[in-house]
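This protein record is not my work; I was only asked to verify it. The record follows directly below this note.
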Amino acid sequence: MSTAEHPLPDDLRADIAALVREELHPRGASVAALRLVQARFRWISTAHLREVAELLRMSVEDLDGIATYFNLLFRKPVGQHVIMLCDSVSCWIMGREHLCAHLCRTLGIRPGETTEDGAITLLPIVCLGHCDHAPALLVNETLHGNVDIASLDRLTDTLRGTLR
């Protein structure tokens, strides 16, 4: 049975309820609630989205609109580690395409895909706001700047090493 088929655990439901109590309007807790679900399951399944919508007293469609608006909320399964490669103009000028091609060759995937072992997902991201250190990428929640092939190889080796 996939994690999507399991209901939200009681402790997570309680954490979301606490967020709701802190807000003037329950929907004000929507992003924080979705981040809690994602922190537990690495992504937000439709079943979990429905449960959160119920807890927030909002429609599934409204909550899905919020979830799909934010590019750091994942509505599809992702790997244990997510590499978000910035594709802003600054990063393009500083070699982003070369890094992306190298990552695709090294990992055996294309942008938007996850490695066969479920270790790493590669995603483009519009801008990380780290233009003065381009090219940049975000790995999980850690920002990396001035990335080159050598630092990229060290990074992917480290990520794969955490799975052993």
